[in-house]
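Note to self: user wants both folds in one dump. Writing first protein now.
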Amino acid sequence: MGISGSDIAQLRNQTQGREELCRVALQQVRDQQNANSTAEALVAAQAEQLEDSGDTTSSISPSPTAQPTPVSTRPPANTPLIPPTASINPFPTPTPLSIPTSTPTPTVPPTVPPLPTATPVPTATPVLPKTGLPTVTDNSTSVSVGDQIWSGSVGNTAVLGVVPRDFTFEGVVVTPHDNGRGLWTFGLGLTVDSVTEHVYVVSNSEIGVRNPRSKSLNIDNHTFGVNTVQNSENSILIRAWGGVISVFVNGNLAAEIEGLWDQEGLLSIQTNYDSRPIPQGFVMQVKDARATTADRVRNAEFDVVVQSGIENRSFVQTGSIDQVSMVFQDPFRVSNDDLDFGFRLRLPHSNRTLEVKKVDLSDNQHRIEASITFDYNGTLFWSEMIPLSSYDPWELEIKLVKFGDQLVLYVEGTRHLLVGTNIDFGFDQLIGVEVFTNESESTIVSQDATFLGLPYVRLTGFGVWSQ
């Protein structure tokens, strides 16, 4: 089928109409661009003029911006609208994600070893004070054999019984004959585990010892005398106190023996030591032989507070005292701060106090001061100074012993007879132990860590004995 001439004419008219529409739209775009260019040129010229005039305000008013000629979107008359050939979607449909059909195996990260746990620094255990004071008992026990009469050349023995390690023996020995007929002996034997150790008196004023275990002994002999006249009496007193045996003959200290006995055992009295028998026809009489428990307290420990500017005291109640001993542990083991400490004993019948005190001097020197003062006004009655040439500040051992009317002070094992105290122990007695620190009320400024950790003077080996 062929195309007619009228159809061709209609298509030509439609084509021309479209071309005319395009030319009009193109011309409108160009006109708009020209208008924008003109406005921009005018604004630039005004800005240049303002720049040239400096701070002077321009009197030229800016020209209004030329408005673009609106473009009609309506097509020319008799021009058919062109229907859109396709539908435009401004939001394209997203492509769905591809979901895997199987679950992937997760990747396991490498194992990292844990950090080591820090070992905590151990905390030092605080040193706790020993504030409890020892209790002194007076419940003594005794064993006795009464009177004994011995004769003959064989050894004579009488058993008193079991005694503790601290005891006191007392008895009176009647002299069987004078030394012109030979020497006689009398002594004690203490049996422990079937072995007997002996201490005895010889009539020539000597002290003998039998030491079958070959112990290491420290023997300090003193001058004494035996009554050698026939039928005269000799008082024998033997103390086994705190590991030291003290032998007294007729009230005088004859010997001190350290290293023997000091154990519970079976006590006996005996004669005829060293093959010295009683001659035929003579007899030895022993009167009122007995042994009594002596320790009231032994090896106790307690602390006495140390405070700056303050004296502190701890009192141990006792009965009559014949011996007291203790070891002081000074808390100042590094510093040189002054700190006095010591103990006091009462003399109740004369209203006086006996004091033993360690004091610090200049140049790191120390000494022991012993004194007796009246209680009512503090007046000094007697005093003695003992230098401490070998003082070890860690420990200071002090022992005070009453021998009859004499007082002996042992400082670090050295014996000091206290002369001139003028104490009548037939009338007076020593009672009570008061331990004190910082009597001078000194200011303590030490930064010594040892002191700060233990602000106490510690007492060890505290003991009280009574005859």
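First done. Writing the second protein, which came from a different request thread.
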Amino acid sequence: MIKADLSPIEEVYLEFIEHVDNGMKNEHGRQLKYLVTGGWAVDGICGKVTRYHENVDLMVPKDNMDKFVSALYAYNEDAEVSHSGKNIHAEAGSIRADVIIMYPIGEEYAFDTPYHNDGAPVWKHLVRGQRVKLNGVGFVSLNAGALYYAKLCAIRRTSKEKNRDERDLRRLAPFVPPKDREQMRAYARI
């Protein structure tokens, strides 16, 4: 990891993301599916840390949850994990991780959250990862198009995060082809 220009908490989060990436491998060393989403994914796609992050958001297929939880406990054996059916919340020292559980639909994956479920048609083909590198740490990010769509859906909500989500959307726009941006706006009803 390249530590230049990182705050101590950013270093800790990137170390955690790197640990998850290394831990999400099968017995043959092949990468298991997981995706970093949210702000850390935006930063990974942009190639630099652009803002403060209070947590790391992830998506993990239901079949890989045991491996993820093992990686979490290997990172911090005192981690606290709570499960709410569709989501997992974990705290490991100064790390907060929020995990959406993905469920298989044939060869694809899907998930259901309060502000994504109305966009189900777009998620079927968008829940794909792309390998990114941030300060020397490689990880699998949700692809730029899906992140763009998620931010579009998020800004429809009235919340304290709306301004943050709008800034993330502007940062992502150059990485999403114009035609795809228009399609996402139509799906998100913006």
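Dump finished. Worth passing along: Helices lie at 8-23, 38-46, 65-75, 120-126, 144-155, 162-172, 178-188.
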